[in-house]
């Protein structure tokens, strides 16, 4: 028999094995828990190696317990006389030592070593870190080949990687859930306390004059600032928990009108001017769009050193996008800070705040697929510009 005919059956087998591995990788990517991973691992080990006795052993501090076994092995384990029988290897056993070795190995198995009555003679052990062990056994009285060991090792590495990915995702979900709970508790309780402070300060106003009245004003201003910071921090926490960002068409006019009205009512000493009627368009955004405008407008008023803070708001339809301009008559922003003022922790030169408001603005606008920038106003002040993509129906 020529060399070509000798190589053909092996080549076909190799192709099938690689194909099985690719299928397993896709299944592992979709697995959501250890049980699903174990099932894929056992089925694939049995298929690519043609070893009938495959097992996923779960590790505890004291033993290895078979949690998933191949179909051919079931008849040797799930005997009618003992339907609850589970294969185990205690700490210190020969299989435990394979688990502790932390490397894929070929083994020959004697009858006294087996945890079942299966006619097991040879096998491969693949440690999976703290998760356990994957074994593939055969009834052939021969040591597994080097290639079979390599295939099992590749499978094991991918199984381990999947188990680690699932654990990371589970931990991240736990952290997000904890942050959700903390965010809800803090926002609810602090909001109630701030409302109480504001209400009592208002009652004191009727009984105060002179310096005492100035202190009351200071309490109310601080309470208002704290409430706004609390809302911004809550929105930022929501943003930071996002993994897959979903946007939807949002009517620009009603959101922008509502925010400007709220800001006007809150900051009675400031002058908020809307140049023209807002365009009747939809932009691609989400429910936090109002927080974008609120933070820009609040920032323009709070950091304004003019006797009467003035803010001008304008929005124009510009084809596929909408441009929103917020111009103030404050001290402006130095050129060296115009690029960085939207970064985390950055703030205006005169600001005593945290800098999270404008960072939230940048984060949200980026998520919407838009842009935000700052430039000088004339004769003084700053202009914050936002470009927001229009929704597909309006574009």
TrEMBL record:
It catalyses: ATP + protein L-histidine = ADP + protein N-phospho-L-histidine. Residues 185-392 form the Histidine kinase domain. It is an enzyme of class 2 (transferase). SMART domains: HATPase_c. Keywords: Kinase, Transferase, Two-component regulatory system. It comes from the Archaea. GO terms for molecular function: protein histidine kinase activity. One of its GO terms (biological process) is phosphorelay signal transduction system. InterPro entries: HATPase_C_sf, HATPase_dom, His_kinase_dom, Sensor_HK_Regulatory, Sig_transdc_His_kin-like_C. Its EC number is 2.7.13.3. Pfam families: HATPase_c. This is histidine kinase. It comes from Haloarcula quadrata. The lineage of its organism: Archaea, Methanobacteriati, Methanobacteriota, Stenosarchaea group, Halobacteria.
